[in-house]
Structure formats: structure tokens, C-alpha cells
Amino acid sequence: MAQIKAAITGVYGYVPEDVLTNQDLEKMVDTNDEWIRTRTGIQERHLLKDPDKATSYMATQAVLGLLEKTGLDPLDIDLLICASVTPDYFFPDTGTLICHNIGAKNSFAYDIQAACSGFLFSATTGAKFIESGAYKNVVIVGADKMSSIVDYTDRSTCILFGDAAGAILLQGNEKGFGLQDSWMRVDGVGAEFLHMKGGGSKNPPTHETVDKKMHYIFQDGGPVYKAAVKGMSEAVGQMLDRNNLSPDDIRFVVPHQANLRIIQAVAKMLDFPMERVMVNIQKYGNTTSGTIPLCLWEFEDQLKPGDKVILTSFGGGYTWGASLWNWAY
Ligand code: COA
Asked: Which atom of ligand 1 is nearest to the CA of 224?
């Protein structure tokens, strides 16, 4: 019997309406459009401004769109994994809230937190449930309301992030479409350079943690930048070497969108042409768990069955990796 592989059979995204441009940021902090564009490639990002709406709202919109597009009945979802660093609550998990919102009554769900690699790690994890034959329909959704943990007085971080969600459907097939290989790593040495100090069990919320602005993203950008270039190049290199592929064999590399210069440096290290690297950071900024599915959503009409696609990410932790897929539609 042919091996069951887990293919991406649909993708959908949700981006909130409100836009925060570089010009808007010029009025908020000591920065300018030219600096932001040349250092990061970002021109604008979208924010979920409604205070009553959180990450699960965006994720729900993305999954509802995915269900409509693929014609899947919510009752047929077996498992939903939500990747996020900005869950609605510590508990219950966001995946369970999304299942409730969409009426996925026959599903189980959980969240995966791996910073900007959350979507990549979740997609590989979900694929294993399909490959094992245990489940038929697995939804992976990456969603983050980054504006809930961004300090809009800190010019070094507030220019980078945006809010969004993206979802994929994974289904089995015996024709060789879907996940071919993956390689993922973590290194806790990165915690020092990218983290949120407050709110967890180490520094539970108090007046003091709020006064000291400990509930916002802290980033020392330089070391993260270098580690991201090295990590994503290494991971994509693993996919090429282990599968005897050259850049010419790959239709698209789909990198996590943290900084255009990081993406360009990775492409250069791998001798990979930028025309075949998915980029939309200029419109959305770094949406953390949302970046990779949002790219797939935007570029899917440039893909056809059998195209080889490499997803790659790098995030806080550090967490990083890559996965190789045969596109199914
Ligand atoms: N506008 C204007 N100037 C700014 C600025 C802003 N928004 N933010 C920082 N600066 C200043 C700094 O204060 C510094 O000034 P100084 O030299 O007088 O001290 C100068 O610009 C250079 O800062 P630096 O941090 O060296 O810039 P950079 O070229 O490294 O770019 C990042 C900063 C954050 C864009 C970059 O380091 C980066 O992208 N890091 C990785 C981000 C990432 O991948 N994060 C998530 C992983 S998922």
C-alpha cells in the first residue's frame, strides 16, 4: 500500500482592516519611513483595533474562510492546532475557542507556542496525524494579535509587528503530494535576546511588572538578525541536501517574514533567486504565526500540483526549521 502523505489542500487568511503606516509611526515615535523601509522592508501593517476582539477572532475568520473555500464541513475536522504567542487566555487554549466558534464538535484542539516558528512546527505536527492514518482532516491556524504585546513607545520593536491569521487544511493522499521532509531545532540561548519578561510564572503580573513595561516584547535585534540568517539558511540547506535537490528544483521558498534584509541574506547564502521567494512583509510586517500561511494564501495562484515548496522560519527561543512540500493543487 502506498504511503499516506499529508497535503495542503487549502489556505486562507484574515487581515484586520485598520492599517498602521510608516507615516503614522513617524507621529508616534522618533522614526521615519525611509529608515523603516530600508532596514526592514515594511511599509505598513494591519492592526486589530477592536478591544473586544482577540487572536481567536482573527483565527476564526481565517478558518471559516478556509472551510468555505474547501467545502469542508466543520463537523468533519478531526484536529485543529493553533500556533500563537498571543493566545486569548493562558487557558483555555485558543484552538478550543476556535472550534467552539466554528462548530467543530468532533474535533480536538490544542495550541503550539514556538514563537515565529509556531506555524512551521504545527504544520509538521499536524501532518504526522494524517500520515499515521489516525485522522483525515487537520486544520492548522497561525494567528497573532501582536499589537497586544507591542510597546508603541519603543521604536525598535513597534515598527516591526502586525496582526493577522492564516490557516491551512491538511488531508491525506497516496499520490505523493504533501509533506516530504522536515528539520526543526530549538536553542534556549536565544531567550536572552527575544522574550517577554512578565505575565508568566517567572514574573506573574503585578503593578510593578506593568510599571516596568514587562508585558511587552523585548528584543535585542542584532543577535536575532544574525541567528535568523544562519538558522533559516541552515534549515533550507538541510532540505536541499537531504533530498538531493538544488535551488532550481524548488518553485518557491516561503520564509517567515521578520525583515526583508534577513530574507534577502538567506536567499543570497543559498544562491536562490528572490523571484522565487515569497515576500509580502511590505504590507503586513511580522505577524509572527501568520506570516507563512499569509504568503501561501497570496501566492497560491502561482503554484501548481507537484511544485516543490520549502517553508522556513526562525523565531524567539530560538526556534527554527524548514519543511519540504509537494504542492497538491
Ligand atoms: N527608527 C529610526 N532609528 C531606529 C529605529 C527606528 N524605528 N529603531 C532603531 N533605530 C536606531 C537605533 O537606535 C540605532 O541607533 P544608534 O546607532 O544611534 O544606537 C540605529 O538605528 C541602528 O540600530 P540597530 O538595532 O543596529 O538596527 P538594525 O539595522 O539592526 O535593525 C532591526 C534593527 C530590529 C530591524 C533588526 O535588528 C532586525 O530585524 N532584527 C531581527 C528581527 C527579527 O527577526 N525578529 C523576530 C525574529 S522572529
From this structure: 41
Beta strands in 150-227 (DSSP E): 163-173, 178-186, 194-196, 217-219
Assess whether the C-beta atom of 35 lies below 6 angstroms from ligand 1. Answer: yes
Range of the domain at 11: 5-176
Catalytic option among 22, 286, 295, 326: 286
Give dist(CA 38, CA 131) in Å, integer: 43
Please state the domain count of the chain: 2
Candidates 82, 116, 158, 295; catalytic one: 116
Span 167-223, pLDDT tens digits = 999 999 999 999 999 999 999 999 999 999 999 999 999 999 999 999 999 999 999
Give the Å distance between the CA of 326 and the centre of ligand 1.
Answer: 36
- In this structure, the residue with its CA closest to atom 33 of ligand 1 is 221
**How many other C-beta atoms are found inside a 10 Å radius of the C-beta of residue 59?**
35
Enter the pTM of the model.
0.97
Task: Tell me if 225 CB under 6 Å of ligand 1.
Answer: yes
Options 22, 82, 137, 256, the catalytic residue: 256
Return the closest-CA partner of residue 54 out of 195, 142, 163, 151. 163
Q: What is the pLDDT of residues 224-255, one digit of tens each?
A: 999 999 999 999 999 999 999 999 999 999 99
Do residues 119 and 140 touch, judged by C-beta distance below 8 A? yes
Q: Is the CB of 39 under 6 A from ligand 1?
A: yes
Give me the CATH number covering residue 30.
3.40.47.10
Rounded to the nearest angstrom, the gap between the alpha carbon of residue 149 and the centroid of all alpha carbons in its chain is 16
Tallying the residues shown for the chain, one arrives at 329
Residue 115 grid cell = 514563537
Residues 31 and 111 in one domain: yes
Concatenating the DSSP letter of every residue in 2-58 gives: PPPEEEEEEEEEE--SEEEEHHHHHTTSS--HHHHHHHH---EEEE---TT--HHHH
Q: Is the peptide bond before 318 cis (omega within 30 degrees of 0)?
A: yes
**Residue 280 annotated as catalytic:** no
